[in-house]
Protein backbone atom coordinates (compact mmCIF):
# COMPACT_ATOMS: atom_id res chain seq x y z
CA UNK A 1 0.00 0.00 0.00
CA UNK A 2 2.81 2.40 0.93
CA UNK A 3 4.68 1.60 -2.30
CA UNK A 4 1.49 2.23 -4.29
CA UNK A 5 1.00 5.65 -2.64
CA UNK A 6 4.63 6.56 -3.26
CA UNK A 7 4.35 5.66 -6.95
CA UNK A 8 1.21 7.81 -7.27
CA UNK A 9 2.98 10.74 -5.59
CA UNK A 10 5.95 10.42 -7.94
CA UNK A 11 3.60 10.34 -10.92
CA UNK A 12 1.79 13.50 -9.75
CA UNK A 13 5.10 15.32 -9.15
CA UNK A 14 6.39 14.28 -12.57
CA UNK A 15 3.16 15.39 -14.26
CA UNK A 16 3.25 18.74 -12.48
CA UNK A 17 6.88 19.23 -13.48
CA UNK A 18 6.15 18.38 -17.10
CA UNK A 19 3.24 20.85 -17.15
CA UNK A 20 5.21 23.69 -15.59
CA UNK A 21 4.90 26.82 -17.68
CA UNK A 22 7.72 29.15 -18.64
CA UNK A 23 7.29 32.84 -19.41
CA UNK A 24 9.67 34.51 -21.85
CA UNK A 25 10.11 38.23 -22.41
CA UNK A 26 11.32 39.49 -25.80
CA UNK A 27 12.58 42.96 -26.68
CA UNK A 28 12.00 43.45 -30.39
CA UNK A 29 13.16 45.90 -33.05
CA UNK A 30 11.43 46.19 -36.40
CA UNK A 31 10.90 48.30 -39.47
CA UNK A 32 7.15 48.53 -39.86
CA UNK A 33 7.04 49.49 -43.54
CA UNK A 34 6.03 46.07 -44.91
CA UNK A 35 3.70 45.12 -42.05
CA UNK A 36 0.07 45.84 -41.28
CA UNK A 37 1.03 46.86 -37.76
CA UNK A 38 2.02 44.78 -34.75
CA UNK A 39 -1.24 43.03 -33.93
CA UNK A 40 -2.10 39.74 -35.64
CA UNK A 41 -4.90 40.10 -38.17
CA UNK A 42 -6.52 37.72 -40.64
CA UNK A 43 -5.29 38.11 -44.25
CA UNK A 44 -2.61 40.65 -43.25
CA UNK A 45 1.10 40.28 -42.59
CA UNK A 46 1.89 41.56 -39.09
CA UNK A 47 4.94 41.58 -36.84
CA UNK A 48 3.23 39.52 -34.14
CA UNK A 49 2.07 36.95 -36.69
CA UNK A 50 5.53 36.50 -38.21
CA UNK A 51 7.25 36.01 -34.84
CA UNK A 52 4.56 33.62 -33.60
CA UNK A 53 5.06 31.43 -36.69
CA UNK A 54 8.77 31.08 -35.91
CA UNK A 55 8.15 30.38 -32.22
CA UNK A 56 5.60 27.67 -33.03
CA UNK A 57 8.16 25.89 -35.22
CA UNK A 58 10.75 26.08 -32.44
CA UNK A 59 8.48 25.00 -29.56
CA UNK A 60 6.20 22.71 -31.58
CA UNK A 61 3.10 24.11 -29.88
CA UNK A 62 0.63 26.96 -30.30
CA UNK A 63 2.18 30.25 -29.13
CA UNK A 64 0.34 33.45 -28.26
CA UNK A 65 2.63 36.48 -28.19
CA UNK A 66 1.42 39.32 -25.97
CA UNK A 67 2.70 42.76 -26.98
CA UNK A 68 3.06 45.84 -24.78
CA UNK A 69 0.64 47.51 -27.18
CA UNK A 70 -0.13 47.67 -30.86
CA UNK A 71 1.74 49.79 -33.34
CA UNK A 72 -0.09 50.79 -36.51
CA UNK A 73 0.81 49.88 -40.08
CA UNK A 74 4.09 51.52 -41.08
CA UNK A 75 5.18 52.38 -37.53
CA UNK A 76 8.63 51.21 -36.40
CA UNK A 77 9.94 49.94 -33.06
CA UNK A 78 13.31 50.25 -31.36
CA UNK A 79 12.15 48.47 -28.22
CA UNK A 80 8.79 46.75 -28.48
CA UNK A 81 8.26 44.27 -25.64
CA UNK A 82 6.31 41.02 -25.80
CA UNK A 83 5.97 37.86 -23.75
CA UNK A 84 4.71 34.34 -24.30
CA UNK A 85 4.12 31.30 -22.09
CA UNK A 86 4.96 27.73 -22.98
CA UNK A 87 5.22 24.31 -21.36
CA UNK A 88 8.37 23.46 -23.28
CA UNK A 89 11.63 24.89 -21.96
CA UNK A 90 14.33 26.46 -24.12
CA UNK A 91 17.35 28.42 -23.03
CA UNK A 92 16.84 32.14 -23.68
CA UNK A 93 20.08 32.29 -25.66
CA UNK A 94 18.82 29.47 -27.92
CA UNK A 95 15.55 31.32 -28.55
CA UNK A 96 17.53 34.49 -29.29
CA UNK A 97 19.81 32.76 -31.80
CA UNK A 98 17.00 30.87 -33.50
CA UNK A 99 14.76 33.90 -33.98
CA UNK A 100 17.52 36.15 -35.26
CA UNK A 101 18.60 33.42 -37.69
CA UNK A 102 15.11 32.81 -39.10
CA UNK A 103 13.19 36.09 -38.90
CA UNK A 104 13.07 38.49 -41.87
CA UNK A 105 15.85 41.08 -41.83
CA UNK A 106 13.42 43.88 -40.94
CA UNK A 107 12.68 42.23 -37.58
CA UNK A 108 15.32 41.46 -34.95
CA UNK A 109 15.33 40.33 -31.33
CA UNK A 110 17.30 42.55 -29.00
CA UNK A 111 17.04 40.30 -25.95
CA UNK A 112 15.30 37.23 -24.53
CA UNK A 113 14.89 36.40 -20.85
CA UNK A 114 12.78 34.11 -18.71
CA UNK A 115 10.57 36.12 -16.37
CA UNK A 116 8.05 35.31 -13.61
CA UNK A 117 4.70 33.94 -14.75
CA UNK A 118 3.07 37.09 -13.41
CA UNK A 119 4.83 39.26 -16.00
CA UNK A 120 2.50 40.60 -18.71
CA UNK A 121 3.99 42.77 -21.45
CA UNK A 122 0.95 45.04 -21.56
CA UNK A 123 -0.48 45.11 -18.05
CA UNK A 124 2.90 45.16 -16.25
CA UNK A 125 4.09 48.20 -18.23
CA UNK A 126 4.57 51.43 -16.24
CA UNK A 127 5.18 53.73 -19.20
CA UNK A 128 6.44 54.10 -22.76
CA UNK A 129 8.52 56.45 -24.87
CA UNK A 130 7.84 57.28 -28.50
CA UNK A 131 9.91 59.33 -30.92
CA UNK A 132 8.56 61.11 -33.98
CA UNK A 133 11.03 62.24 -36.65
CA UNK A 134 10.57 65.02 -39.20
CA UNK A 135 13.26 65.90 -41.73
CA UNK A 136 13.37 69.31 -43.38
CA UNK A 137 15.96 68.70 -46.10
CA UNK A 138 15.68 65.98 -48.76
CA UNK A 139 17.57 62.86 -47.74
CA UNK A 140 17.00 59.46 -49.40
CA UNK A 141 18.41 57.69 -46.35
CA UNK A 142 15.58 59.08 -44.22
CA UNK A 143 12.87 58.13 -46.72
CA UNK A 144 10.45 55.80 -44.97
CA UNK A 145 11.87 56.73 -41.55
CA UNK A 146 10.49 60.23 -41.14
CA UNK A 147 8.03 62.83 -42.42
CA UNK A 148 9.60 65.11 -45.02
CA UNK A 149 8.41 68.72 -44.82
CA UNK A 150 10.06 71.15 -47.22
CA UNK A 151 8.21 74.29 -46.09
CA UNK A 152 9.48 76.55 -43.30
CA UNK A 153 8.40 75.52 -39.79
CA UNK A 154 8.20 77.94 -36.87
CA UNK A 155 10.01 75.87 -34.22
CA UNK A 156 9.24 78.36 -31.46
CA UNK A 157 5.48 78.03 -31.99
CA UNK A 158 5.76 74.25 -32.18
CA UNK A 159 7.51 74.18 -28.80
CA UNK A 160 4.82 76.48 -27.38
CA UNK A 161 2.15 74.06 -28.58
CA UNK A 162 3.97 71.07 -27.08
CA UNK A 163 4.04 72.86 -23.71
CA UNK A 164 0.25 73.11 -23.91
CA UNK A 165 0.07 69.36 -24.58
CA UNK A 166 2.37 68.65 -21.64
CA UNK A 167 0.12 70.59 -19.25
CA UNK A 168 -3.14 69.12 -20.55
CA UNK A 169 -4.98 66.65 -18.33
CA UNK A 170 -7.17 65.23 -21.10
CA UNK A 171 -5.95 64.44 -24.63
CA UNK A 172 -8.98 62.56 -25.96
CA UNK A 173 -9.28 65.11 -28.79
CA UNK A 174 -5.89 63.90 -30.02
CA UNK A 175 -6.85 60.24 -30.34
CA UNK A 176 -8.81 57.91 -32.60
CA UNK A 177 -12.56 58.39 -32.59
CA UNK A 178 -14.56 55.44 -31.33
CA UNK A 179 -11.82 53.82 -29.22
CA UNK A 180 -12.27 52.86 -25.57
CA UNK A 181 -10.42 55.76 -24.02
CA UNK A 182 -8.70 56.20 -20.68
CA UNK A 183 -8.59 59.89 -19.88
CA UNK A 184 -5.84 59.73 -17.26
CA UNK A 185 -2.80 59.99 -19.56
CA UNK A 186 0.17 61.23 -17.56
CA UNK A 187 2.76 62.88 -19.81
CA UNK A 188 6.08 62.64 -17.98
CA UNK A 189 8.50 64.08 -20.52
CA UNK A 190 8.04 65.89 -23.84
CA UNK A 191 10.94 67.29 -25.85
CA UNK A 192 11.58 68.80 -29.27
CA UNK A 193 15.12 68.63 -30.65
CA UNK A 194 16.19 70.31 -33.90
CA UNK A 195 19.66 70.19 -35.41
CA UNK A 196 18.87 72.32 -38.45
CA UNK A 197 17.80 69.32 -40.51
CA UNK A 198 15.99 66.76 -38.35
CA UNK A 199 13.26 67.50 -35.81
CA UNK A 200 12.76 64.81 -33.16
CA UNK A 201 9.81 64.93 -30.81
CA UNK A 202 10.19 62.55 -27.88
CA UNK A 203 7.31 61.83 -25.54
CA UNK A 204 7.16 59.62 -22.45
CA UNK A 205 3.79 58.88 -20.84
CA UNK A 206 2.04 56.42 -18.56
CA UNK A 207 0.20 55.07 -21.61
CA UNK A 208 -0.88 56.28 -25.04
CA UNK A 209 -4.24 56.65 -26.71
CA UNK A 210 -4.42 55.30 -30.25
CA UNK A 211 -3.08 57.85 -32.80
CA UNK A 212 -2.17 60.17 -29.91
CA UNK A 213 1.46 60.82 -30.88
CA UNK A 214 0.67 61.13 -34.59
CA UNK A 215 -2.16 63.56 -33.86
CA UNK A 216 -0.01 65.65 -31.53
CA UNK A 217 2.64 65.89 -34.25
CA UNK A 218 0.08 66.51 -36.98
CA UNK A 219 -1.33 69.50 -35.11
CA UNK A 220 1.95 71.06 -34.04
CA UNK A 221 3.20 70.83 -37.65
CA UNK A 222 0.11 72.77 -38.78
CA UNK A 223 0.96 75.34 -36.10
CA UNK A 224 4.55 75.46 -37.33
CA UNK A 225 3.32 76.02 -40.89
CA UNK A 226 1.00 78.82 -39.75
CA UNK A 227 -2.17 76.94 -40.75
CA UNK A 228 -3.41 76.53 -37.16
CA UNK A 229 -3.22 79.02 -34.31
CA UNK A 230 -2.27 78.26 -30.73
CA UNK A 231 -5.74 79.32 -29.60
CA UNK A 232 -7.43 77.02 -32.13
CA UNK A 233 -5.24 74.17 -30.88
CA UNK A 234 -6.25 74.88 -27.27
CA UNK A 235 -9.92 74.83 -28.33
CA UNK A 236 -9.45 71.44 -29.98
CA UNK A 237 -7.93 69.96 -26.81
CA UNK A 238 -10.57 71.54 -24.57
CA UNK A 239 -13.39 70.12 -26.73
CA UNK A 240 -12.52 66.55 -25.61
CA UNK A 241 -13.85 65.44 -28.99
CA UNK A 242 -11.70 63.22 -31.26
CA UNK A 243 -13.63 64.42 -34.32
CA UNK A 244 -12.18 67.91 -33.77
CA UNK A 245 -8.59 66.69 -34.02
CA UNK A 246 -8.32 66.52 -37.80
CA UNK A 247 -4.56 66.44 -38.38
CA UNK A 248 -2.54 63.22 -38.18
CA UNK A 249 1.11 62.71 -39.07
CA UNK A 250 2.05 59.80 -41.38
CA UNK A 251 3.09 56.56 -39.65
CA UNK A 252 6.63 56.25 -41.08
CA UNK A 253 8.02 58.93 -38.76
CA UNK A 254 6.92 57.17 -35.56
CA UNK A 255 9.14 54.87 -33.47
CA UNK A 256 8.28 53.04 -30.26
CA UNK A 257 11.55 53.66 -28.40
CA UNK A 258 11.14 51.91 -25.05
CA UNK A 259 8.69 50.30 -22.64
CA UNK A 260 9.24 50.65 -18.87
CA UNK A 261 8.46 48.08 -16.15
Low-confidence segments, given as residue ranges, are: 7-17
Kindly report the CATH topology of the largest domain: Alpha-Beta Plaits
* Number of E-state strands: 9
Quaternary assembly: single chain
- Into how many domains do the coordinates divide? 2
Describe the largest sheet. 9 strands, mixed
SS element count, helices:
6
The global form is elongated
As a percent range, the share of helical residues equals 25-40%
Output the helix-strand order: HEHEEHEEEHEEHHE
Strand content: 15-25%
- The separation of the N and C termini measures 51 Å
What's the CATH class label of the largest domain?
Answer: Alpha Beta
> Which structural category fits the helices and strands?
alpha+beta
CATH architecture of the largest domain: 2-Layer Sandwich
Radius of gyration, whole Å? 22 Å
Short recap of the structure:
With 261 residues, the protein is of the alpha+beta class. The chain has helices spanning 2-18, 47-59, 92-102, 155-167, 212-225, 230-239; strands at residues 22-30, 66-67, 76-86, 107-115, 127-135, 147-148, 187-194, 198-205, 254-260.
Structure in words:
- With 261 residues, the chain is of the alpha+beta class.
- The protein has two domains: 2-115, 2-Layer Sandwich (Alpha-Beta Plaits), CATH 3.30.70.580; 127-260, 2-Layer Sandwich (Alpha-Beta Plaits), CATH 3.30.70.660.
- 30% of the residues lie in helices and 25% in strands.
- It has six helices and nine strands.
- Strands 1, 2, 3, 4, 5, 6, 7, 8 and 9 form a nine-stranded mixed β-sheet that branches.
- α2 crosses α3 (92-102), α4 packs antiparallel against α5 and α4 runs parallel beside α6 (230-239).
- The longest helix is centred in the N-terminal third of the chain and has 17 residues, at 2-18.
- The protein is elongated and about 60 Å long.
- The model is unreliable at 7-17 (pLDDT under 50).
Amino acid sequence: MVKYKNSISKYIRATMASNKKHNYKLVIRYIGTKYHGWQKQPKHKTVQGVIEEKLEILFKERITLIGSGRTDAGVHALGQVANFKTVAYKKPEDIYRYLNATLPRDISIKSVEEVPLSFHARFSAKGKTYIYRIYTKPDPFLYGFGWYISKHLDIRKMVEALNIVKKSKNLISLSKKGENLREDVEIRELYLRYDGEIIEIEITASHFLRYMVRKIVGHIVQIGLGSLSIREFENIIESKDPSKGLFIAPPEGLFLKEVYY
